[in-house]
Amino acid sequence: MTRQGEGRRDRVRKNRLYVTGLSLVFAACASAPTHSGRPSPASAPITLASADPDEAEFRKSLEEAYQQIVARTGGSGAVTIVDVDALLSMPAPDHKSIRGAIQYFSTSLRGSIQASLDRSQKYRTDIEEALAAARLPKGLAYLPVIESAYLPSLTSRAGARGVWQFMPDTAREYGMRVDWWVDDRVNPSKSARAAAAYLGDLHRQFNDWPLALAAYNAGPGRIRRAMRETGASTFWELLDLKAIPKETRGYVPTFYATLMIVSDPPAYGFTLPARLSHAPAE
What we know:
Elements: H1 3-29, H2 55-73, H3 84-89, H4 96-106, H5 110-119, H6 124-133, H7 143-147, H8 168-173, H9 188-206, H10 209-218, H11 220-230, H12 235-241, H13 246-263, H14 265-268
Helix pairs in contact: 1-4, 1-13, 4-13, 6-9, 9-10, 10-11, 10-13
């Protein structure tokens, strides 16, 4: 085998390990205990006690935290990049499964998650334009962190492919060509528009983002059936009742964990590329 072939094989192996690792995280976070500790942060991470944070107070707390960092380091230093707007667009509840996901991401999967955030820069324009056109929350731009690590050619064992991991039938339903010659799922612009359309449809069905995200992972029929059989009205009730697949019970918390991380990256040991978001005011 040529050196180029060996390099390609190594990349494929690493990508599969990343996806396998995320699958394990989904499973673990489905019943993750509350962690009493977390990695030593550079500053106290910002947490949300409710799903309706006061935006002004949130921004003020975040800015004060970074001012403390500057004071301790004795200089202005490099500007720390955060993405407060992503979390504000989809507030994260205080749930033990989210705290468990943050713990995993900040330790065992830190390198892979950081690489995914770095890689996202290539696709941000297409994704942000698609979300804005569909009037969807900015935070959804981080969903590929847990779907594909922003790897356009990634294909799951079940046949899902692309940054947004579309199955062939769903891809065709949302206007993408998938056949022997062309697979639009690997096209960043077309797949982003299709994902925005699909996510928008799911939100209109469930009128709730955690349920819509669960449906994106497990299928809307399975989520509706679980709600009907249990009488549950929220994703978190379905999680506690273990009424949906384990992967889905972990999928939604890991997404919200990602939003928590990008809202205050240094607190969890991460960085964001400069163009991804906004720096706190000086």
